[in-house]
Structures are given as C-alpha cells and as structure tokens.
Design goal:
Number of helices: 9
Radius of gyration: 18 Å
CATH superfamily: Metal-dependent hydrolases
CATH class: Alpha Beta
Strand content: 5-15%
Strand order of the largest sheet: 1-2-3-4-5-6-7-8
Number of strands: 8
Number of domains: 1
Helix content: 25-40%
Distance between the termini: 31 Å
Order of helices and strands: EHEHEHEHEHEHEHEHH
Shape: globular
Structural class: alpha/beta
Length: 290
Amino acid sequence: MTAVPAPLPAGACDCHVHVFGPAASYPFAPARAYTPADAPLFALRALHRRLGMARTVIVQPSPYGSDNACLLDALAQLGDAARGVAVIDDTISGEALAAMHAAGVRGVRVNLETAGEHDPAVAGRRLMAAARRVAPLGWHVQTYTSLATLAALAGLLPDLPTTLVIDHFGRAQADLGTSQAGFDKLLSALASGRVYVKLSAPYRISRAPGYADVAPLAQALIDANPDRVLWGTDWPHPGTAAGVALRPEGITPFRDEDNARALARCLSWAGTAERVRKLLVDNPARLYMF
C-alpha cells in the first residue's frame, strides 16, 4: 500500500464515490448491468480519514436506477461534509427535487455509457431534458459517455442551461494520447468554462502499468482550465474488475485499487500547490456549493 501523501489542503474533496448496500435494505433495480457487493459508508469514512479527505461527493450508481434511497441516507449521515449526484426519471415532482436539494444533492447523472446509448441525437435530448429539469435549482448535469459522443455533442453545450460535468477523463483512451480524435473538442469545452472534467477511474481508459500513459491526458486537461477539473477515487471501483464481464447475475467484484497511489498521481499531475488546491478544494466547493 502506498504511503499517504503529505497533508492535503483543508477542505479536500473526493468528487466521485459510490455507496452500496446492504442489499436487503436498498434493493437493486431489476434492469441493471451488474450486481455489486456491499460498500458501506463506514468503509468510505475510514478511507477518507486515511487519505485526509474532508469532503465527498456520492454519485448514484447505475444498479440502483432512479431509486436514490441509499444515496440520500448516506448524505443524511455525512451532513454538510457531503454532496450527492442523483439519478431521476421523468415522473419526479418538483417537491421531490426540492427535498433532494435540502438533503445535499447538487446534480443529476445521465449515464449514457452503461446504457449503451451512443446516438448523439438521443444523447443530446436526454442531456437537455435533464438540464432543463434541474436548472432552476442551480444543479449541474453529469454524464458518463464516450469521447466520440462528447465530440458530437460539442455544439449543444452553449444551449445547455446548466453546467456539464464529464466523468472519467471523458473516456479518452490513454494509449492514443492527446492527439486522438475528439480530445481537442474536450479541451475546448473545458476552456469555455461551461464544462468540468473528472480525473477519476484511470483504469477505465488505461491498461498501462501504474496508468502511466494517463499523465499526458490529465496534464492537458488541467492546463486547458485548472478551474474546471475535479478529482475522485471512484471508490469502491465498481463494475470493472479485470477479466470479469458485467452481469446482473451473481456479484461482480470490485477492483483492488491503491487509493493513496491514486491521490499521489493527482498531486503529480497538478504539479503546484495552487493547482492542487484548485482540484481538491476550490473547484469542488464552487460546483457542489459546499
């Protein structure tokens, strides 16, 4: 296990985690890509104590669909040290959204990748519908999708009434480097200030030892706009165990990742104390309204 890096700036935030279970209390959606093991809140708290994280953002994972009960209960236990990103459907009421806001939710997630939705026209309609629904609350829309889909949606960004948050490096493939098709559009979107990108889950875009080939992508994203990048562990690293296909039957194991090493990589990518503070403190505080 990697040693924890030197003390972090006060208010450091892990901007992408999930909480699962117990399944008896929080049943999964019947239509789901995988079934996770339990990943309880006490284990997340222990990790964050070790890493020196003062704040966290819990993201609704796809196995729960739009049932946000587990997320909301975790937010209630964590209080003002946490924020949430929920999943909603078309039937949700304004009263329910207001209650979520009071509970600490500050965004909605549109998971296009897990749903297998790569048609830019359909993706654009889904993002716009979500954005219009939550814009009055001052929330953002978060999406997990391919770099190609993001590039095709570049023209939509000026019309979105909310900020867009992009998961996991925009799924740029690390081995293709910064010249790969679509990456320039991601950099331009960042530079515009209308988009945030999460530097999270490098194992989703890299197979290199230590994810070394991710560094040029991360540094290019930070350079494009250090005020619009975020960092997250993706704990407990769900649905991506090497060599295991996603399936709803049985339990899909979590990846075994060194979270202290992941944090050390983030500090290395940032390079300066000022940029570390932006990634871990200032940018999350602005976006999630801490």
